[in-house]
Model the fold of this input.
Amino acid sequence: MPPTVDYHCPCLSQSTVPPPPHLPSSLHSFHPLHTLFFCEECDAVRCNRCVSVEVSGYYCPNCLFEVPSASVRAEKNRSKSPCFGARCARNCFMCPNCRNTLSVVPSDPPDPGDGRIAIPISTVGEPPFFLYCNHCRWDSAEVGITFEKPTGLAAQLQKFEDSAPDSLEFERLKEHFEPVIRASSLSSSTTANAPAAHPSSAAHSHRLRTNSITAAASAALARDIPGVSKYNPLARSGRGGGGAVGRDKTTNKDEMPEYRSRVDIASASGRGTGGGEADVEYMRHLENVSEVANLEQRWINSWATSLQTADLKPLRIPLHSKRSKRCPACAHILIKPEQKAQSVRYKIKLVAATYLPAITAALPHAQDATNADTAAKRTLGKSTSAAAADDDRGAGGIHAGKTYPFHLALTNPLYDPIQVRLTVQRVHSSASTAAAASEKARRPPFAVSLPSNSFAIAAYAEAWEYDLDDEDDLDEMFGLDDDDFGVAGRVPGREGAKDARGGKAKVVGVLEKKANMTVVGGEVVIGKEARGNVKFNMLVSYTYRSDDPAPSESNDAAEGLTPARAAAAGAGKPPETKTFAFYTVVDLGPIIPREEPRHVDPDF
Amino acid sequence: MAPIRDKYTIHSKAVVCQDVELKGDITIGSGSIVHPKATIFAIAGPIVIGSGCIIEEGAIIVNRRKEVMRIGDDNLFEIGCRVESPTVGDFNTVSTRARVHHTVRIGSYCVVGAGCLVVPTEDEFLDDYTVIYGPAAERRTWSGRGKVQEADLRRKHAEYLREMLPKFNRLRRGEGS
Amino acid sequence: MDPPIYYSKAEYIETDTGNKVSRRATIAGPQNIILGGKTIISSGAIIRGDLRRTGAGHAVVISLGRYCVVGEGCVMRPPYKTYRGNFNYYPMKIGDHVHIGANTVVEAATIGSHVEIGKNCVIGKFTIIKDCARVADGTIVPPNTVIPALALFAGSPGRFVEDLPESTQETVETQTKRYYTRFQPLDR
Done:
């Protein structure tokens, strides 16, 4: 595993300081940069764990047809199992046996009966048509489902589904609860407005409405849990006697008749829905295990289904959704996809990668090992590659009791140059005060040094994208002993001389500058008894010049400007600077303990 | 073991590309197609392939046993599959990158799914219409519905290849043809 | 930062548009294959441009866009079927920034742009893979499957696992460009 750098998202926590990297909880607060968002209003990093999500549209993942939200609700999800969400209402079905997508195929022409294979003459295919799985070769004719036409299958199948006992039951349940839900949603939508802390905007009305419906529905359900229901009348009558002012306004509207199921569960097994004596009898005479549908094949259906594979029905494909994402603090929109289902563009896309410098870590000694390895592999042919890979582990590993240099490459996504300062988070900061004794033992068995001065990274410019002289750049990139000035001189930015402190063979400090990337070197001293991973938290703070007072500095400001002009424009005004800081966790990989110097842990 | 003597008997209506590795005593029947980069190794006993078979690129057919390996008619061996079965019936499909061990004899109308490994330690016979699929090489029996259309597809496919492959690839001719 | 990936200069042919094609790859019917530029065809790959649609005229069988990589031992082959009783092969179209891992077999109809396909996969006939999708290593995608945009597929049969991050397009574009830059000749 190459070294990784993940970024911290505080997720609305009070403390912006991340947990120390050796705690398991640290895993959940650090994320790869490309999965993070950035809220300009709050000036903060947001992650998928904390953003609020809204569905902006549904589509079928197979036919890619967009389904308006309204029809998803109106068509009662066209599903045999309403509890599992919306399904495609067109011709898309899944194999109940292996979950592959089914295709509609015509029947074979009648067999002439002489054992020879007849060549079909019809070019359109013979009815009846059936659904066929080209992975496991299940077909719907096996369970008695065939179609007269190869189109409009959903409608043809609807008859089967609607007459299924569980969907009839669901219909009845819905009818039974409909008036209650309607009544309570009316009252709760008025009450829900009061405690709503969100700033009211047009976009929120939709959310409130759905919230009130779900709230009412869950409240209604909670009151009708079979085991609890017998206590309810007492409580209700008691409260009713003492004046009808309950805590919850909706409770007293809940005078509803008891629900009686359509069929008694004891007799249900006789109706092909499984359960009871019929199943026992069936299992007793079982000859082949494959006649019993396995759990995975059955559990997508609602509560009671037949045990038999012979009863598996084609499944409708669940719809996928496109989602908008909002900042959890200010409700500012961070992600807004385009309407079209298969578009990968976004109307709004505020991702952290366009605001924060991207950082990658590398261990030069491991890279040297792999380089030598690749070169050797190429000359000697592939046969050596396995052996070489083994060697490489030993050579590229981090051994206890040694000192290693490492590189951090920072890439600036902004159209302005930035000044960056890196600080290693000391573990004694917050967490260790609580449990000092145990933390002492867990002190990191290694020490990290990073350049203490701040350093510059040149601005991003579209021109860097064009890889004009790749080869020259590469030579410089990997000839690390090259004169720093020579490389820095290529950068049109103003700094360069400032950073070239220290002598030739420096390890800690700025090593290289190329376009909008700066490579800094650090050093890690591994303790003699060290184990585990070399993993530390690093605070990155960067200062950028912003031309306009608003925090939205990058995209609109510099669009269309060449870096030279942007710099000139910046030079004209008094430079206004802003600083932003964020935490990262750097994982350089596992330490190889001293006892077995060439043996790496087996997970590696 | 006696050294392998190469003896290729290729029917005049078969299409075997030049860029194919053949070793040992091999007979290829009428109308069968062997794509470039396929391998047929008769290490011990001979290999006899029937008519109308399609052996795609990267497919490997090996006979490790002394007895004759008999492959029936109209079988399809897809890209990169490996078959060592001592007998193979008719109209079977061994899908892309599937592997069938020499302990397995294959009936007719069987399908070994893409990437499936069929490597039992004891001898086994795959009944007609057996379908093997999925990561655990699960088995079920195909109803056979659609087999006429599939056979039609296979025949037309072979017919197309007999016409097109010679236009772009150099062919091999057997001594015995 | 990333080290270069060296290849033997003698093994690869570089075209005017920057395509790098291994001499150890099998390219059948090259006149029917289009490479968009800066695309790498690794050694041991087989590309079947000879399986063309019947009928007169020049037929493109396989087209690949820019910054694609066809890994070692991959097989790229157009899909076939009978339609209204007539047998034919149908062209395969692949967008830009598509990486295909080693030993994967592709018989797809269309693959969009910014798609990553892992190693040892089987992409069945007439599969449609939309933009920015990803197929995990060792996935078996049965014929006629549709993989929607920004979806991760894995397993046998290949099934939806999760949605990919919104910035996938940029990430993949950077990676594929960097890969091409890293892919350097070594004089021996």
About this structure: Chain A is about 30% helix and 20% strand. Chain A touches chain C through 46 residues (CB under 8 Å). The mean pLDDT of chain A is 70.
